[in-house]
């Protein structure tokens, strides 16, 4: 199968080259598409790669009938409607590491330019104005830099700022005093940072909680003459409040790489001589663009050719060494879900997944997603995948629970899936046998042992002499060959189960005939 991938923003050729060379992928580079063009054309593409310019809206995603992956060559994914992508089962990947260095360097360049008025002085010179008095700056040495958001870039900025002899005070919801000590910086609350810093730089994503993090109240808390840098995301700073704070003299200056509206041709902040700005250039270096393009294109190739991705955004990322251990169980998990959904003939309300033995030691979230995918696919079809399985379960009101235990009832690993409906609890358990692959070893409380593949028939019957013969003759009369057969019972003469693997799909008429036998309570055909 050939996959079509659209590259909708300018991308370094180093990344694009492997896509061009892939025999499985056709690329189209078109960086001039309007929203309307995208809506009209997106339907034919399996992959879409963007930087920050293209806004991948819900409407575009709704028209993306074949789209499987969206790649963001960079960190921030606020230009992609993640919920809409997840709901449609489209994986979103980004390139979180490739531009850290460039963004940190840009932040330092902006800070130093701001404190020494370099852009303003240069402009004045260009206008034939030699004015040394007007552009007196301040030193940064021994002053305090407040860092809000100590992730990849915030940490890198702190380390560089220490080289400039700045003292660092930082706030991040994941920063502990111990971590701060190890980094040689001071740990504070947001308020501490706002009150104590001479310069403040923000390095958070734009989230509900970070929108207008620096607002009127925040500016009021700051030292007089504070200077602000934003090389993260427009919207973290309330631009109206910043404008006022600069006009009132509270804030001495601001260096902005990102803005609430981008791109813009007119922003009132730029009317202020205290503001210096760049048009979202934090990641615009040759090196960063090569890195992010290579990273994102590799993930797109990996995904479309059936491999696991390195930087998923709407799926938890699983390290390669852990993936290697859990991947063999993927098929088992999905097959158990596929199998069990056929036994549950009422609406499922709850799913419990029990991981036992070796599985108890593993990161099992991907297996949970595969199990739920297997359960949902019967009724929701192929659009259910790892990305949207849990979302769709929640949407259908099904709660999903994971449980771990070391006790695997004699197996080295045991995966048990239980579904609760209004009036019943049904379950199936399977194991991965060395060299033999997945086996189903329990159906409800019955012990069995069969490969979850091919045409299966589950028969619940009364344990009475002759029933197996009657069933076998009926299948034979209908030219159905039995490949494997398992029988188990609760007690002598009680409820029992027959598990058959047969060589072809049985017609409904034949299943009805089996059901009509007195001793047979229930017949379910399952194709796996
Ligand atoms: N100007 C540009 O061209 C570039 C901008 N960026 C932007 O820089 C920002 C940071 O990127 P990375 O460091 O790679 O991300 P990251 O995910 O490594 O770090 C973000 C940090 O912000 C913290 N955070 C979240 N909410 C917070 C809050 N309310 N207060 C304080 N901290 C909070 C998180 O705990 C995390 O540690 C992102 O917005 C990204 O989009 C990234 C690269 C280039
Ligand atoms: O694509 C770009 O240059 C923007 C980079 C950026 O803002 C990010 O990676 O979050």
UniProtKB/TrEMBL annotation:
<dbReference type="InterPro" id="IPR045865">
    <property type="entry name" value="ACT-like_dom_sf"/>
</dbReference>
<dbReference type="InterPro" id="IPR002912">
    <property type="entry name" value="ACT_dom"/>
</dbReference>
<dbReference type="InterPro" id="IPR006236">
    <property type="entry name" value="PGDH"/>
</dbReference>
<dbReference type="Pfam" id="PF02826">
    <property type="entry name" value="2-Hacid_dh_C"/>
</dbReference>
<dbReference type="Pfam" id="PF00389">
    <property type="entry name" value="2-Hacid_dh"/>
</dbReference>
<protein>
    <recommendedName>
        <fullName>D-3-phosphoglycerate dehydrogenase</fullName>
        <ecNumber>1.1.1.95</ecNumber>
    </recommendedName>
</protein>
<dbReference type="Pfam" id="PF19304">
    <property type="entry name" value="PGDH_inter"/>
</dbReference>
<dbReference type="Pfam" id="PF01842">
    <property type="entry name" value="ACT"/>
</dbReference>
<comment type="similarity">
    <text>Belongs to the D-isomer specific 2-hydroxyacid dehydrogenase family.</text>
</comment>
<dbReference type="InterPro" id="IPR045626">
    <property type="entry name" value="PGDH_ASB_dom"/>
</dbReference>
<dbReference type="InterPro" id="IPR006139">
    <property type="entry name" value="D-isomer_2_OHA_DH_cat_dom"/>
</dbReference>
<keyword id="KW-0560">Oxidoreductase</keyword>
<dbReference type="InterPro" id="IPR029752">
    <property type="entry name" value="D-isomer_DH_CS1"/>
</dbReference>
<comment type="function">
    <text>Catalyzes the reversible oxidation of 3-phospho-D-glycerate to 3-phosphonooxypyruvate, the first step of the phosphorylated L-serine biosynthesis pathway. Also catalyzes the reversible oxidation of 2-hydroxyglutarate to 2-oxoglutarate.</text>
</comment>
<dbReference type="InterPro" id="IPR036291">
    <property type="entry name" value="NAD(P)-bd_dom_sf"/>
</dbReference>
<dbReference type="InterPro" id="IPR029009">
    <property type="entry name" value="ASB_dom_sf"/>
</dbReference>
<dbReference type="InterPro" id="IPR050857">
    <property type="entry name" value="D-2-hydroxyacid_DH"/>
</dbReference>
<feature type="domain" description="ACT">
    <location>
        <begin position="456"/>
        <end position="528"/>
    </location>
</feature>
<dbReference type="InterPro" id="IPR006140">
    <property type="entry name" value="D-isomer_DH_NAD-bd"/>
</dbReference>
<keyword id="KW-0520">NAD</keyword>
<keyword id="KW-0028">Amino-acid biosynthesis</keyword>
<comment type="pathway">
    <text>Amino-acid biosynthesis; L-serine biosynthesis; L-serine from 3-phospho-D-glycerate: step 1/3.</text>
</comment>
<keyword id="KW-0718">Serine biosynthesis</keyword>
<dbReference type="InterPro" id="IPR029753">
    <property type="entry name" value="D-isomer_DH_CS"/>
</dbReference>
């Amino acid at each position: 199968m050939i996959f079509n991938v659209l590259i909708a923003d300018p991308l370094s050729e180093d990344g694009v080259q492997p896509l061009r060379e892939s025999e499985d992928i056709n690329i189209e580079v078109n960086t001039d598409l309007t929203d309307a063009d995208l809506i009209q054309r997106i339907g034919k593409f399996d992959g879409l790669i963007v930087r920050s310019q293209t806004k991948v809206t819900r409407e575009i995603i709704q028209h993306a009938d074949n789209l499987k992956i969206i790649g963001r060559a960079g960190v921030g994914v606020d230009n992609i409607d993640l919920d809409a992508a997840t709901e449609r089962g489209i994986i979103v990947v980004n390139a979180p590491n490739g531009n850290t260095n460039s963004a940190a360097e840009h932040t330092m360049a902006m800070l130093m330019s701001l404190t020494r008025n370099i852009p303003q002085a240069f402009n004045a010179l260009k206008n034939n104005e030699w004015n040394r008095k007007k552009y007196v700056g301040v030193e940064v040495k021994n002053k305090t830099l407040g860092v809000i958001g100590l992730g990849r870039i915030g940490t890198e900025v702190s380390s560089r700022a220490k080289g400039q002899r700045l003292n660092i005070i930082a706030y991040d919801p994941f920063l502990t005093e111990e971590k701060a000590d190890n980094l040689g910086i001071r740990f504070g609350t947001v308020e501490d940072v706002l009150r104590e810093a001479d310069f403040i730089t923000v390095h958070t994503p734009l989230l509900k909680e970070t929108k207008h993090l620096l607002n009127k109240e925040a500016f009021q808390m700051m030292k007089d003459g504070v200077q602000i840098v934003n090389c993260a995301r427009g919207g973290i700073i309330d631009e109206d409040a910043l404008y006022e704070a600069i006009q009132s003299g509270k804030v001495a200056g601001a260096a902005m790489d990102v803005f609430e509206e981008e791109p813009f041709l007119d922003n009132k902040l730029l009317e202020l001589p205290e503001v210096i700005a760049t048009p979202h250039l934090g990641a615009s270096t040759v090196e960063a663009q090569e890195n992010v393009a290579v990273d994102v294109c590799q993930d797109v190739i990996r995904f479309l050719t059936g491999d696991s991705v390195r930087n998923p955004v709407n799926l938890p990322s699983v390290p390669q060494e852990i993936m290697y251990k859990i991947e063999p169980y993927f098929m088992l998990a999905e097959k158990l879900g596929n199998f069990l959904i056929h036994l549950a003939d009422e609406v499922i309300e709850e799913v419990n997944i029990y991981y036992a033995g070796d599985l108890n030691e593993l990161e099992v979230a991907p297996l949970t997603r595969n199990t739920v995918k297997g359960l949902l696919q019967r009724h929701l079809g192929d659009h259910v995948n790892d990305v949207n399985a849990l979302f769709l379960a929640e949407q259908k009101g099904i709660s999903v629970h994971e449980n771990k235990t070391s006790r695997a009832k004699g197996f080295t690993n045991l995966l048990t899936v239980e579904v609760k409906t209004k009036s019943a609890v049904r379950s199936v358990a399977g194991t991965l046998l060395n060299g033999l692959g997945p086996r189903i070893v329990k159906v409800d409380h019955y012990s069995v042992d069969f490969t979850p593949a091919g045409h299966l028939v589950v028969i619940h019957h009364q344990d009475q002499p002759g029933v197996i013969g009657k069933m076998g003759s009926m299948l034979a009369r209908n030219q159905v060959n039995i490949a494997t057969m398992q029988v188990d019972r609760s007690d002598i003469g009680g409820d029992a189960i027959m598990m058959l693997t047969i060589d072809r799909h049985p017609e409904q008429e034949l299943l009805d005939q089996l059901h009509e036998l007195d001793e047979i309570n229930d017949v379910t055909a399952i194709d796996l």
